[in-house]
Specification:
The chain is an alpha/beta fold and about 425 residues long. It is built from 14 helices and 21 strands. The longest helix has 14 residues.
């Protein structure tokens, strides 16, 4: 009997699967443990695509550090002091704004700010982005999308983004340009950009030719991002690599490294997939936890079972996602809502969830009220092992199971005959 610990909120739960049924525990490759200060120093001293980053900033210039919010695992609290140490001789503290790139998310609480920034939140001027207020239009993309961005970013002389690189299920990858769009962009800009997600190239780990990502790059170029500082985290949330440098060249190096860690080959699709986003903050709400379902869907057979292990202490997490689902009597009704109203940010998660539910039965172990879980067409579970006998009854005693403890960051590549497929069409 295999006993597997699955991240759940701030802790773990245990899943027990008979050895004969377990295809494997699908997770990224291990990375050597490194010291953040050491790998940061190496990256800073060897920037990608630009000369010495510090020399890009002149005394008296206004600098915006654009950082990810509480829904992202970037170790900003540890990273920003390392950056500041190398820039402090070039920049006055009163000329610095730390802009929280929260996109359309809620404002972080004081407790969340403490985790994100520690005492740094008292050291610098904080700007909490609001996608509906204090915006400046800086241009339009080739597709005609107006780029509305936070005034503090638009009016800064120098812009530095601080984030992390991982798979994003329709922008290809997070990090870099994504701190600008959607991070500090206006609602109209975000919605018009994200409306392209029905394009078949808008998939996880698809970067080149992905219209959403390409437009994000355009927005970051219009802003004039001077350089990025991005980390790649291992499956346990520890820093494995830091990249510093050009918006595109440094990001390319970071995502290539991420691929070596988290694109995982699997020999067959499973009857049952048990998946966790990876614990807090990746399972802070259903809206964020969905990323794990997206990846689990690549590994499950048509008609199979998925158990999502996600605490969701903040509930559903998005009002539009909630509204669209609440208006549906069955999952497929969401496509009628999409046709009637067009794309709305948040509603896209309802569309993706409906697609998944058309292929598989999905249960959830969470803190959500049972009635609310069912309203989202998910079967509530009280024990992570509940689906084991159900799978045996449905698929036979030799059913096949996969476990994905860090499903938000694990991309299955399924070997099908002579081909290996990931992303589009899975």
């Amino acid at each position: 009997m295999a006993r597997i610990q699955i991240p759940y909120g701030e802790g773990t739960v245990e899943v027990m699967i008979p050895d004969r049924n377990l295809i494997g525990v699908l997770q990224g490759a291990g990375a050597p443990q490194v010291d953040l200060a050491d790998v940061f120093a190496e990256a800073w001293d060897n920037p990608i695509g630009i000369p010495d980053p510090a020399r890009r900033i002149r005394p008296g210039e206004k600098v915006a550090f654009v950082v990810t919010d509480h829904t992202r695992p970037t170790p900003t609290r540890r990273l920003l002091p390392l950056i500041w140490e190398r820039l402090r001789e070039h920049v006055r503290k009163e000329d610095v704004a730390v802009v929280i790139a929260k996109g359309t998310h809620r404002r972080p609480t004081e407790e969340e700010l403490e985790k994100m920034l520690g005492d740094l939140r008292h050291e610098f001027r904080l700007v909490f982005h609001d996608c509906d207020r204090d915006l400046v239009e800086i241009g339009k993309t080739a597709r005609g999308t107006p780029i509305l961005v936070n005034r503090a970013v638009a009016e800064a002389d120098r812009v530095v983004t601080i984030g992390h690189i991982a798979m994003h299920y329709y922008a290809g990858y997070s990090g870099g340009r994504k701190n600008i769009l959607p991070g500090v962009s206006g609602r109209e800009t975000i919605e018009r950009n994200h409306a392209q997600l029905t394009d078949p190239h808008c998939e996880g780990c698809v970067y080149e030719g992905n219209p959403i990502s390409e437009e994000m790059v355009e927005a970051a170029r219009l802003v004039g991002v001077d350089f990025i500082v991005d980390v790649v985290l291992d499956s346990k949330g520890r820093v494995a690599k830091v990249v510093v440098g050009d918006l595109e060249e440094a990001h390319a190096a970071g995502r290539a490294f991420w691929d070596t860690l988290f694109q995982v080959r699997v020999s067959e699709r499973a009857d049952l997939v048990i998946v966790s986003p990876g614990g807090h903050p990746k399972d802070i709400d259903l809206y964020q936890a969905y990323k794990a379902l997206y990846n689990a869907g690549k590994a499950v057979k048509d008609g199979g079972l998925i158990l999502l292990v996600a605490a969701c202490p903040d509930g559903i997490g998005d009002p539009v996602f909630t509204d669209w689902v609440m208006r549906c009597q069955k999952p497929s009704d969401v496509f009628d809502v999409l046709r009637e109203e067009g794309f709305k940010l948040g509603g896209h998660k309802a569309v993706y969830l409906a697609r998944d539910l058309a292929r598989s039965r999905i249960s959830i172990l969470s803190l959500l009220d049972d009635a609310l879980a069912r309203r989202f067409f998910l079967e509530p579970a009280k024990d992570p092992n509940e689906l084991i006998p159900i799978a045996a009854q449905r698929f036979g005693k030799d059913f096949r199971a996969l476990v994905m403890p860090y499903g938000g960051d694990t991309v299955p590549i399924v070997k099908e005959g002579a081909a290996e497929r990931v992303g589009v069409g899975l």
